[in-house]
Amino acid sequence: xxxxxxxxxxxxxxxxPLEILTAYAxxxxxxxxxxVLMSGMVRNQTGGRAVDYLDxxxxxxxxxxxxxxxxxxxQAKCAEITHVVIHHRFGKxxxxxxxxxxxxGSPHREAAFTACSDAIALIKQNAPIWKxxxxxxxxSSWVNx
Length: 145
Prior knowledge:
It is elongated, with a radius of gyration of 16 Å. It is built from 3 helices and 9 strands; from the N terminus they run E-H-E-E-E-H-E-E-E-H-E-E. The protein has helices spanning 20-27, 60-77, 109-126; strands at residues 8-14, 34-41, 45-46, 49-58, 83-89, 91-94, 98-106, 129-135, 140-143.
């Protein structure tokens, strides 16, 4: 097993649109042979119901602490990862807009893929971020991430 490297992180909670190139650049480094980026977007339907838009809300201070815990949990599992980037958007998002970006940098792709997958799963389980789905039929409901 490789000993853990110094982990670089970049976390953002914002109402502004998220930028893929910004997240990618924050995980990019000459020592890395891989940057894996996951983009979560608002889809046009959930469970067969047409989506109008989503509204994301969260507890900023706690979410940023959870993001830190997630980054280090990912590194504990995949010691070689060097960068973990988590950007999440709040507010009203329309179909096709990006709600979350995760980028993980590592010398090798397998660790980057694993850490990226683990990070989104842990965000959904642990981050104090909530979404309300607004349906085209005028109804709405809170949904667990």
